[in-house]
Amino acid sequence: VGALVGFVSNGGDTKPYAIQNISVMDCNIGKPTDYDDNAGGIVGTWYSTGTISLENCTITGTTLKSRTSGGVLGYGSRGTVYAKNIQLSNITLKYVAKTVGGLGGEVTSTFYGQNALMQNMTYEKPANSGRFFGTGTNARLIGVTIQQNNNKELPAKDIYNRTYPTDYGTTNYVVYADYDNTVVTSAEIATKPSQEVLGITDGLHGD
Questions:
Q1: Comparison of pLDDT for 54 and 171, the residue scoring more
Q2: Is 4 exposed, middle or buried, given 0-12, 13-18 or 19+ CB atoms closer than 10 A?
Q3: DSSP state of 37
Q4: Can you list the alpha helix ranges (DSSP code H) found in the chain?
Q5: Does the pLDDT of residue 115 top 70, yes or no?
Q6: What integer pLDDT is reported at residue 193 of this predicted model?
Q7: HSE of 36 in the Cβ direction (CA atoms, 13 Å)?
Q8: Which residue from 63, 66, 70, 93 has the highest number of Cβ atoms inside 10 Å of its Cβ?
Q9: What is the CA radius of gyration of the chain?
């Protein structure tokens, strides 16, 4: 279940998909008692060997709850997801059986994220959630910012199923950016001076 796209399965067709310049506001997305479905702020389930590009997207005032939930993508398996210039604000993430993440719930697709702002996020069960992904196996984020003014607890991990740095490897990294000195820092942030990407030095995960 997604605000724009529920389920994509390409059956061998690798044509690219693109969603650009959209806003999602004040929605309740998902099936609160469903153990089989997934909820995403834009796409519910991506099960394709192709690519999907999400650019200039804003999701505000939205609650997601299903088997697994993500602010942008509920479940991703196979293929590649590109997310650029994403803003999430006042999002509530809940789940029935799996886990949740600010950007993606259960994502084993390759996920490239650039320039994402998350404000006032609410995680129903932060101890079993990830700031950005509940499950991530190829999660690559650059220039992400979290700003919390709602006194809600954030998950301790950026990717719930990964422990930094032992099992991040070279396929998972998170680079924080602080555009106006209000970013919430991550306890997992690496501090090695050599870990600087594109002039952003607030943190880098991965090798």
A1: 54
A2: middle
A3: -
A4: none
A5: yes
A6: 29
A7: 0
A8: 70
A9: 15
pTM here? 0.83
User: Which residue's structure tokens are 């998972």?
Assistant: 172
Distance of alpha carbon 142 from alpha carbon 85, whole angstroms: 11
Q: Kindly tell me the sign of the dihedral angle through the C-alpha atoms of 106, 60, 120, 144.
A: positive
Average pLDDT value for the chain = 81
CB-based burial label for 181 (10 Å; 0-12, 13-18, 19+): exposed
Which tokens in the block code for residue 121? Answer: 């996020």
Which residue is associated with the tokens 């605000």? 3
Q: Tens digits of per-residue pLDDT, 9-49? A: 876 667 789 999 999 999 998 876 656 689 999 999 999 88
Token pair of 48 as six digits: 């394709």
Per residue in 174-192, pLDDT (tens digit) is: 888 865 555 555 544 433 2
What is the C-alpha to C-alpha distance for residues 57 and 153, in angstroms, rounded to an integer? 25
Closest CA to 6 of 33, 36, 46: 46
Do residues 24 and 53 lie in contact, with contact meaning Cβ atoms separated by under 8 Å? no
Q: Is 127 strand, coil or helix? A: helix
